[in-house]
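In the design runs reported in the main text, the only information available to the sequence generator was the tokenized backbone. The following block is the verbatim input for one such run; it is reproduced so that readers can re-run the procedure and compare outputs position by position.
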């Protein structure tokens, strides 16, 4: 086992999003992942709509009827009428993406058994595959859309319903997917990642990385990244105001925004 600080071992399993929380604010991390964790209290409309769009797209990509897929996706989330209309506004983009990917699969020799939708993958501290909730899981993530090609490469596409951002913003996420894919399928040649910006109808491809690069560069990177990013766990949780506050699910509890500490504790 790698020589990791106890804070890294005690607070797993990790994910790229979980690492991002502790990097930005140890108080938010405590609310979300601490021993007395609580459910997020400030859910945003964009988030609820995004979850429903993801679900509809997942169902359509699984070859379900598109009308039924959208109905099922919007029935699940207690959405308002306006939010349902916002989900329906993605109809044409979902139609085009499905057609595009059907053609892509045929052109790249992707067999039905090599299509992976909303798969929850995990790996151990020595980078062996584990179940998402299994014993020994150290790092994990959810793959929106995975495709294993005839050339034995794994393609992983992540769906984003929000505005388009530069691919550099997703570098760590891409690395996490590559690590999970190689742990799950150690015989693959490499991993190709991409972002499906659903609203903009754009599929933007990241770089291709070989299995050798994933083993020799990404594996040590993850451990080093965790060591550096979790330093805040060695001190009591402290709120830190930054850009991420606008999206924080605990803003109304945070003392920096008028939240009552006592009320926050009682809410737990």
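Verbatim output:
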């Amino acid at each position: 086992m790698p020589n990791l600080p106890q804070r890294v071992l005690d607070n797993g399993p990790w994910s790229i999003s979980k690492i991002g929380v502790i990097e930005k604010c140890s108080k938010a991390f405590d609310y979300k992942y601490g021993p007395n964790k609580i459910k997020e209290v400030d859910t945003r409309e964009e988030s609820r709509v995004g979850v429903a769009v993801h679900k509809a797209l997942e169902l359509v990509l699984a070859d379900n009827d598109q009308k039924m897929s959208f109905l099922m996706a919007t029935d699940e989330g207690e959405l308002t009428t306006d939010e349902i209309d916002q989900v329906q506004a993605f109809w044409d983009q979902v139609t085009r993406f499905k057609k595009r990917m059907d053609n892509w699969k045929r052109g790249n020799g992707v067999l039905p058994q090599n299509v992976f939708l909303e798969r929850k993958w995990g790996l151990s501290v020595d980078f062996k595959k584990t179940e998402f909730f299994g014993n020994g899981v150290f790092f994990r993530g959810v793959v929106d859309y995975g495709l294993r090609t005839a050339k034995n490469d794994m393609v992983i596409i992540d769906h984003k319903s929000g505005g388009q951002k530069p691919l550099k913003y997703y570098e760590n996420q891409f690395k996490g997917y590559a690590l999970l894919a190689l742990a799950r399928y150690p015989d693959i040649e490499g991993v190709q990642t991409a972002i499906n910006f659903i609203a903009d109808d754009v599929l933007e491809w990241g770089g291709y990385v070989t299995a050798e690069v994933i083993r020799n560069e990404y594996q040590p990177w993850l451990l080093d990244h965790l060591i550096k990013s979790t330093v805040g766990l060695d001190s009591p949780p402290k709120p830190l105001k930054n850009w991420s506050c606008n999206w924080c699910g605990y803003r109304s509890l945070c003392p920096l925004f008028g939240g009552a500490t006592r009320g926050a504790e009682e809410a737990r």
